[in-house]
Amino acid sequence: MDDNEPHAEVVFMGGARVGKTTLVHRILQIPTSAALEGKYKPTIEDSFVRQFLVSDHSCRLRLVDTSGSYAFPAMQRLWVKRASAIILVCSRDDPNSLEHIRGVIDRIQEERRNDLRHLLLVLVVNKCDLHMKDWIVSDEEVEVLADKYEIPYNSIVFASAYTEMGVTQIMKTLWKQNEENGTYEIHFDSRSKIPQPNRRFSAFAVLFRSSQTNKPEATKSNGQHSGRAHTGSFSDTLLPGTRRLQSVSSGSPGWWAKTFKKNRNDTKFKFDSPPTVIEMNCTIS
Asked: Which of 17, 96, 135, 160 could join 129 via S-S bond, C-beta 3.0 to 4.6 A?
């Protein structure tokens, strides 16, 4: 493999205005994002190549930010066919975003029916920083979707691109799936290998093998974000046990207990050690 080529392509898909672009920018530690400044600009397609370090190994990933509209079905179909991993993004404040996800999954099952088991898939529920009274997409609706399409609960991440909550968990969940999958769709090199330059590409150019490139983006972190001014916001702690589906990150006791068939009514969960997905170290360069 050419050292300049990515080891795998991770494609972000979901409806318009669900926060795909901001999530990608948060993961890549791009310091500015128009969406965070309240300026929404629809994405057609965008593509970034970055070096990720996981424990003692490194990998180069192409992260693809796709359009949330139905105006480019051919490009979406091509990405579905060639993706090593797909990150599905829906939003707490948009019920149509779940319908969009259902359509994407149906398309995935149609296009990848012969190698579906090889595809890494993470479902992200974004905008969990909003006050719970503003949540239109409920935990129960997410659970119904997961059950219908057999998405493991530990492959679901509740996140906020605005506050950065759960953002690193997205990639950690991806690494964990890659280990458990057994086919290793994401390949790693020795960490001692000389890192290649970070690059940003036109996703259209990538699909059609064009050499068009843009200036690389900066990757320095902008630190902690002050977040939205509100009370009763979503947190990493467990919500009251009366909730059927605990609204916490996919590595939480609530999710793990449900996934591994613990008693739903038992709110006391014990582990000999935390799930490895929580402890995996992931940085980018």
From this structure: 160
